[in-house]
Specification:
Strand 2, helix 6 and strand 3 form a beta-alpha-beta unit. By secondary structure, the protein is an alpha/beta fold. The protein has two domains: 160 residues, Aspartate Aminotransferase, domain 1 (Alpha-Beta Complex), CATH 3.90.1150.10; 231 residues, Aspartate Aminotransferase, domain 2 (3-Layer(aba) Sandwich). Helix 1 packs across helix 12. Bound molecules: pyridoxal-5'-phosphate (PLP). The site of pyridoxal-5'-phosphate (PLP) has 16 residues, from helix 5 and helix 6. Belongs to the trans-sulfuration enzymes family. Its EC number is 4.4.1.1. One of its GO terms (biological process) is cysteine biosynthetic process via cystathionine.
Length: 412
């Protein structure tokens, strides 16, 4: 069977399955283009927001803030504010802040905690986050506990009197496990004083809006789908809580971590096409997942929109669709064969990261995504095997991506 016929069959299945997700309300694409900036704001009436390179603003123009003039000189940049307003609107939030990387935003959230406080963290999430908490967090006196976030009862039992932050990533990266955001937020708010942070990088705010389900803070690596062009490193947080916003902003100010106005302008531009891009990422990933499911050299595909995903129904109940990542296992492959598969790819690039126009493939075991602080047994139990491949499906033609995977698998 050639890829063309496989692909036609898959498009049909996609339409059936897409109905299962929550329905997007109208308005997202318009907000992405208009909510941060209108030409009436400026004398020159440019339809696109300008890049303000200025490192300082005149105290004279900030009458309400005269007493804080010095602080504002360093911390306020109009281009950044336009981006923050857009990001807040897209998450159905009141406030957003941007950082020079996703990790910088996470570090800032961690820096709000005090020695003796505890973080309860999902055990199957982006490795950089695990390492940040387990290495730097522990060094500065924080306690860090890991739990299977897909099991609400275990989360309830793991809460301690000093738990101040619960860290959720759903779908998790790279294993695609789903955490029930509303159930976890309800348990945490009822039984502790902790805040619930959801790392929403894998879905972007187009496909999932955790504040609507009770999360206190949403964290993003903007580097991924939100910027989506593999050319900016940035992070952000969104929240509805004025108190949390002010606390995070204060920590940001005293630690001095902001992105450049130029990068902010690039992301303002990227967000205007977020809805379009995510639809295509999602379609490509689903077509590819369906193709791989039927391939004789593949022994398993991890993608929440597939009916075979153990948490398929839960996934559909809290998001509007699925981003461009998925994982699969090459049947019976050892690491050497996994590497050979990656070398055979011609369109997919053998590289880390996700969320850009370019499709990427990587074997988590060849890369740092396996937490160095986890034992071999823990790593194995989490599903990180030698034959695991993670794909970030970009925006190329789906039939060309499918053919690329097909020829690389068949060459093994
Ligand atoms: C990439 C990533 C991060 C870190 O973001 P950077 O912008 O690379 O610092 C955090 N969380 C998730 C889920 C990621 O994929």
């Amino acid at each position: 069977m050639g890829y063309q016929s496989v692909s036609n069959e898959l498009v049909h299945l996609t339409e059936n399955e897409a109905i299962g997700f929550l329905r997007q309300e109208s308005g997202f694409a318009t907000k992405a283009i208009h909510s941060g900036y209108r030409p009436e704001q400026l004398l020159c009436r440019s339809i696109v927001a300008p890049i303000y390179m200025s490192t300082s603003v005149s105290s004279a123009s900030l009458s309400q803030n005269d007493n804080k003039g010095n602080e504002l000189q360093n911390t306020e940049n109009p281009t950044r504010i336009i981006l923050e307003q857009t990001l807040a609107a897209l998450d159905n939030g009141k406030y957003a802040l941007v950082f020079p990387s996703g990790t910088a935003g996470q570090s800032c959230l961690m820096a709000m905690l005090k020695a003796g406080d505890s973080i309860l963290c999902g055990n199957n999430i982006y490795t950089g986050t695990i390492e940040l908490f387990r290495e730097t967090g522990v060094d500065i006196g924080l306690e860090v506990d890991f739990v299977d976030m897909t099991k609400p009862d275990e989360v309830r039992k793991a809460l301690k009197s000093n738990t101040k932050m619960v860290w959720v990533e759903t779908p998790s990266n790279p294993m695609m496990l789903i955490t029930d955001i509303k159930t976890i937020a309800d348990i945490v708010h009822k039984e502790s004083n902790a805040i619930v942070v959801v790392d929403n990088t894998p879905s972007s705010c187009y496909f999932q809006r955790p504040l609507d389900f009770g999360a206190d803070v949403v964290s993003y690596s903007i580097t991924k789908f939100m910027n989506g062009h593999n050319d900016v490193v940035m992070g952000s947080i969104s929240t509805n809580s004025k108190e949390l916003y002010e606390k995070i902003k204060f920590t940001q100010q005293i630690t001095g971590i902001w992105p450049s106005p130029f990068d902010c302008a690039l992301v303002i531009r990227s967000l205007k096409t977020l809805a379009l891009r995510m639809e295509r990422h999602s379609l490509n990933a689903l077509l590819i997942a369906k193709f791989l499911e039927h391939h004789s050299r593949v022994s398993g595909v991890l993608h929440p929109a597939l009916a075979t995903h153990p948490q398929h129904k839960l996934a559909l109940s809290q998001c509007y669709g699925h981003g461009g990542s998925l994982c699969f296992y090459i049947k019976d492959a050892k690491l050497d064969e996994t590497k050979r598969f990656l070398k055979h790819l011609k369109v997919f690039m053998w590289a880390d990261s996700l969320g850009g126009c370019e499709s990427l493939a990587q074997a988590p075991l060849l890369w740092f995504v396996v937490p160095t602080s986890f034992s071999d047994e823990e790593v194995h139990d989490l599903g990180f095997l030698e034959n695991l491949i993670r794909l970030s499906c970009g925006l190329e033609d789906p039939e060309i991506l499918i053919e690329d995977l097909n020829q690389a698998l068949n060459a093994l």
